[in-house]
Structures
1.
Amino acid sequence: MARIEAKAPAGLSAPRVIRPAVPWYQHQLARSVFYHAVVGVTCFFMLYPILWLVGSSFKPPDEIWTNQTAIIPKDFYPQNYPNGWAGFGGISFATFYRNSLFYATFGTILSVSASAVVAYGFARLRFRGRRIWFAIMLVTLMLPTQVQIIPQYIVFKQLGWLNTFYPLLLPRIGGSAFFIFMIIQFIRSIPVDLDEAAMIDGANKFGIFLRVILPQLTPAIITAAIFSFYWTWDEFLVPLIYLNSPELYLVSLALRTFSDPSGQTDWGAIFAMSALSLLPVFVIFISFQRYLVEGISTTGLKG
Amino acid sequence: MAAATLSKAKRRKQSNFGQDNLVGYLFIGPWLAAFLLFTFIPISVSLLLSFTDYNVLANAGEFIGLDNFQRMFFEDRRYWRSVNATLKYVVFSVPLRLLFALAVAMLLNTYRRGVGVYRAAFYAPSIIGGSIAVAVMWREIFGNDGLVNFTLNVLGIQGPNWLGRPETAIWTLIILAAWQFGSPMLIFLAGLKNIPKHLYESAEIDGANAWQRFLRITLPMLTPIIFFNLIMQLISGFMVFTQAFIVTQGRPLDTTLFYALYVYRRAFEQNEMGYASAMAWVMLMVIALLTALVFRSSSYWVHYEAGEGA
């Protein structure tokens, strides 16, 4: 916006700013208010279903249907949480959370550490066939799970590994193509001079990876770990196929059984357990938002 | 003389290229092993299975030639309903998602206070998008006595049975997909920030209005990003599973029986793994073909700045 400054005579106070006559709606303040009103209201509608879910999880049974639209319950009823936590078939949500935490933590460690090792190989080492393998790795990003999962299931079943975590964890030993790609991009931004200096000092490739590259990978590894954790936490199809006994259920599987419309009528408890299952993801999201945004923006990871 | 030295240098460079052969394969070894064991071999086996009537309970199957494909294309009515549902879902949800993503990214492409909070808020639905909790919530929101109908009732409108009617059920899932535009939004936002400011300034001096600037600068400069987002969203659109599995279970009248859901049912509920493998392979081919088509078309509409990678 154009500002015309009048020349102040010497000795007088600060120069007076004369604003040209503009219509009110073009004023900075009006525009700002308008912007925040539009974006704020849109935001509210975006978040409304989530807020509604959390609100409903604190409503007493009769209020859930009579006072539906409200986010803030009239009567605060936290009893839904212990009711839901009790679970089903004598197994409480403590078991499901323990399973999910084990799987998400261990699975994340496995796939992120493998991804870092593989990414270093692709990013820094010169070996025959590197380009072809790299291209193949990118293509695997586009493969539908359905073409791989049926033969995998047949083999794991023959091995007697149904109702174990092996079929879920074992395919992660090679890392994940998404994270490998992301970490490769990151390693490429690290100057090669450091590698060379270490090489002159007599370090071999493993030493360079461990002492030079790995310490600098922290931001990329955090980003990958966050994504891995919340994808694993939400994973559904693969656990659905392999984990059939309720003691092994992850939170996602348990919620599905728990909320089965034919078997369950305590909607307060269903809402409570649904809201609770989102909590770990939200806590991580809020604490590491910066890493997530950077990760998606720079590598185009899907969310 | 010079040529000889050059070729010698070239040869040395070539042998240099293979200097890390052993170490290189040690480092990518984990990926290579997992790729062969859990991707390459299974996909090949899946192709073989598609020519058999393998049943996992009997652990036996016979070679039946192209019967699975014959049945799929000419006899199985549900198959075509599932193709229909998937296409409808992709055709509506992908453009809607990209449209919302771009619109909101443009709104957030400013340096005002509070933009970081808005960005997080718009992204929040996407971060929980794949979870069962959200699917359960969606089923309630669009249920017969759910939030949407309750609100309509307050306004004096009798809402339909969203999940029970063939015309409306799929739309609840399309809306659910459109609601989760967070990652393409962030990618668009990064792209918008990369467009050089001087382009807009000179356009403004030349008298271009906001709409013209959008059409002539923003849109062409964003085409590489639109291309990337389109590919990613198409692929994930074709693989949609969880939402339909929980919210509509493929009902009513198979109008939300998405392809991945149908493959799952054939393979793991009816144990027809041969038939399901054939279906999965057709899906792989269709996705590969579509991706190739979009790549092919990109030379007509994707605009790359010289010297600038997207």
2.
Amino acid sequence: MAAGNEVSATYYIQHHLQNLTFGHHPVNGWSLASTSAEATEMGFWAIHLDTMGWSIAMGVLFLWLFRKAGKMATTGVPGGLQNGVEMVIEFIENLTRSTFHGQNKNIAPLALTLFIWILLMNSLKIIPVDYFPVLFAKLGVDYMKIVPTTDVNATLGMALGVFMLIIFYSVKVKGVGGFARELSLTPFNHWLLIPFNLLLEIVSLLVKPFSLAMRLFGNMFAGEVIFILIALLPFWAIWLLDVPWAIFHILVVTLQAFIFTTLTVVYLSAAHEHH
Amino acid sequence: MNINMTLIGQTIAFAIFVWFCIKYVWPPISNALHERQKKIADGLDAASRATRDLELAQEQASQTLRESKEQASQILEQANRRAAQIVEEARVEARAEGERLIAGARAEIEQEVHRAKDELRAQVSHLAIVGAERVLEASVDEKTHRELLDKLAAEL
């Protein structure tokens, strides 16, 4: 889109940053939000169809691809797909082995799921920002934000899952008593300091999922905004900034997926350890 | 940026994906990977073992070769020595045989000489008697002069 006046540019940016929201509107009832304001008015009982759709599509793509590689897996000379998949698996295995010190076979597959899923979701960013919104507009759908990780609900949702796993494994490994003791008696092992310890530990526990979610969301959202701003330039100038930024994002996309995965493994490793 | 049900939906999707991955995706690939790793490790192991075996065999072969060479030279030397010994023995034997032959010949000659002498003696005594008979024209009594004639023959 060529740069118009200030209003249309603002509208363009806002439009591209608005999710396709389905929910219960106080006035319209169960419906798709046709403006950002309507989406806000729907409150919590609404769902971002684009975020859900694209993230599930990416998750299914990941599982399908890797399952296919797993079915064909031979111990002989691997083919192209198997080779690539094995490389990723080995990478994740090494990551898990070096960071995770407990005994849990499920951590490595968990890390694999997170890494590839987030990587695929982030990668959707490389697709030019106008393609899908315009395509869906032709189909009569007002909004289409295709990168799920630029939606804080998606990143916070995953982080919430990780948070639940942290709690689950803490309780499973240390028992309810052990976990409570850890929360109340570290870092200062004195009964007088229990309230202080509790405050400290609970804050640090709650910060974990938030830092995970916000780091990924912040990076992806900021990147997306820059892409949209670049798209406001005259069409012949877009590639000048768009190409370097996209190339840079190959790094960012991988790095953010990696950081999310690594931190998850680190947090879960801490959950498995006795202090 | 609204927080809404998407949060819950995403958590559920996350849980399902992780479960599926743990159950169906990770194990076959991981197993294949580890099995191949083991296979490769075994292969490398076997290769290094084979190299070691080869080295050992080569060493053994060269040692055997060295030993057999030594043995051959020993045998050769022994044969040479034996040959020399045989030649020496033959020489000694030949010399002894020669000496024996010479001694035999010498003894025979001596015997022949003796016999000739005896014969000659007998004939001479007979001749002497015949000569004396002719000279004296009388027969000499052989019996009376036998002792004298024998003495004469012994002096010849």
